[in-house]
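Worked example 4.2. Below are the chains of a multi-component assembly; read each line carefully before continuing.
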Amino acid sequence: MTERVLIKDLAAREDGLVRVSGWVEKVRDQRYVQFVVLRDESGAVQLVNGGVLREPDPENPRSDILVPRTTTISELTHGTFITVTGELQHNERVKLGGVEIQIETIDVVAAALPDNPVADDSNIDVRLDWRFLDLRRPEQNLVFRVQTTFLHALRQVWVDRGFIEIQTPKLMASASESRAELFEVEYFEGKAFLAQSPQFFKQMAQAAGFGGIFEVGPAFRADPSFTSRHATEFTSVDAEMSWIDSHEDVMELHEELMVAGLTAVKEKHGEEIKKFFNVELEVPARPFPRIPLAEAKEIVKAEGYEVPRADADMDPEGERRISAHVKKKYGHDFVFLTDYDASIRPFYHMRHADNPQLTNSYDLIYNGTEISTGAQREHRIDVLEAQAVEKGMDPKELGFYLDFFRYGVPTHGGFGMGLNRVLMLMLKQSSIRETTYLFRGPNRLLP
Amino acid sequence: MTERVLIKDLAAREDGLVRVSGWVEKVRDQRYVQFVVLRDESGAVQLVNGGVLREPDPENPRSDILVPRTTTISELTHGTFITVTGELQHNERVKLGGVEIQIETIDVVAAALPDNPVADDSNIDVRLDWRFLDLRRPEQNLVFRVQTTFLHALRQVWVDRGFIEIQTPKLMASASESRAELFEVEYFEGKAFLAQSPQFFKQMAQAAGFGGIFEVGPAFRADPSFTSRHATEFTSVDAEMSWIDSHEDVMELHEELMVAGLTAVKEKHGEEIKKFFNVELEVPARPFPRIPLAEAKEIVKAEGYEVPRADADMDPEGERRISAHVKKKYGHDFVFLTDYDASIRPFYHMRHADNPQLTNSYDLIYNGTEISTGAQREHRIDVLEAQAVEKGMDPKELGFYLDFFRYGVPTHGGFGMGLNRVLMLMLKQSSIRETTYLFRGPNRLLP
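Applying the procedure described above to all two chains together yields the following structure tokens:
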């Protein structure tokens, strides 16, 4: 049999016999001709069954082939997977890619049920119930091709820099962040917890002398909220590096990664992103703007928005406003908010040498929403322990983590970034549900 | 300040001022000279403090610098992280890399406690208790650099083939493999389970028309066993692809990946692997030998070993023997055992068209141990459902999975492979505990 050809490669081929495989997107059954729109992972093409006979014709020697094929095509349901061989013909009048295929044979691999549980106007919950059908839409497929390209570009940067890829355990004996959002696992005769982040374990790699490390893996938060940017399970992109002077070194790595990722995505998918999402992807210039958090709050206040929070933190509306300000002033989609107040940062963030109220930390805001938190970590065991106690933590429970610092550790820092959020903001989607393969929330565990 | 130089790059530099950072591996305190062996993520180098003065000497203007430095060096504990500036000098008599550094300044970043909980002869449990110290050994560091290179090479193959990277959820509403080895999670008001494999979700990508997909992520098995090759959490390397004719297509992809991974590892780390593990890495020739399971059992029987199992399966000793046979006969480290009996395969493996007793499946054996199971999947909903019922499963519980097949699906197949096992066998290690960043077992959740 001839080799399968991807639909995107048809236009560049010469006319002649081809084999294509995919699923039926549309059937148009006309009086003397039948059309099928076939889609595969790379695109869509029009198949044609010409010279249609509705009944066997004793005068026509091809009638016994044509009539069954006619019937088969009429009965093709939306979503049925088929393999078709036929004559590829270039034809400028065919809007769909300028080619069509005159059907010779059809092999039905798996017929779809005739009902279609998802319609174009189905709400997000129905679409998530039938995520595998929802993902057939070309714009959804594009999301995950973008994800692939983005991650591969990030990993190339890390590999070029000599970073080590680690896979940290997701089963832990205690909390890595806050006890409040912890999932508990029955672990043989005892209990385990799901990692809320690889924080402790990527710092362990620093004490182990690994230098730079990275990980892309799941993180779990028993967060009961239902916003567009929270999930109970999400993909965390993490890096950590040794021998930094401050969080500035982390921000420089972070910039380099975002530029590499967006450059690769724009190059490979820029046109499709424009077509499907009407987004003109921009590769950000370096350095990204940096604004201390306190100053950012002053800026949005001067522009009429006072952040309504009791603590020192920014809120989502404040992030949107400072992002809009930066876009207007510097034409930049990204902004690092830096030097967060110690009261709103975890105990392991290092504080300024000259002002213990402030931390060597940042949040990265992209198109109005926070995608990442980074920091220099406190590596001095006495300071670290004091900061943990100050936050009301029990150093005994942190025992294994604090041990990492007792036998020597370099200065270090890193960041964690929510992949699904990055994709949501890159492609200007309304929710991470659109940019997560299978979303998990407080009331969603299926499919 | 001068830029930090990685120790591996010193030999290629000209003599002159350099800055290095790492941890103290050894201090030799002699009468008139002090030596420090400093290690970083790239190698080790000798630091020298010559012209040592034990007491301030009013005649010597450098004495007040030299004496404190002398004290500092004497007090350096093993594992202390330091930054040193000094004069790089090439010196053929220095065994360690042919260079040494005359110390100018020492900055102690974090001093290590003087006790060393891990000794060279500590057993594996002590080493795992102090994994971050254990990982400082250069051979352990090498394991994870090999992992990085191996995975990057695999992903390059997938990206070049147009495969999509997915991250499937690890929180599930039901079992994906067997109910016996399932971890239960408290999920808000209800229960969730940890994914034993991404099996169902990577098949979902097939129904979604994604074509080829891959994932590298954690998998969880509540397996109470304590062998050298089992863990409760491990890194699974998974791929799945559409429009295959049989499991042969999956094996071809699998071969291509292993060859690419091993080629990259040999090229980048072959010499170090030889040095630290005394292993001469071999890039396997294609095609890998393929032996139907029944035939493999005949071969080991003819060579004197009757597999002592009630079912049709191979056992670990049988795997070792067939692997030794293949090595001897074909000089090959790999062998595909194919066509497993349906009774010992999951319900979703496709069976031979002409013999429903056998499946379109394989195990890949590497240096004597199974590293992977692959198969063509059954895509016909009626056959799939019947096979599930035959295995005593409740199709209702499989509801969401079976739905994937009701709305059309291409022929497809794939494999799952245990990354830690591959590394164990590649580097001829005795246990996956040596090739897992942080091992998890029935009685190990720490650190």
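Take a moment to check your reading of the output against the notes. Chain B has a mean pLDDT of 95. The longest strand of chain B covers residues 16-29.
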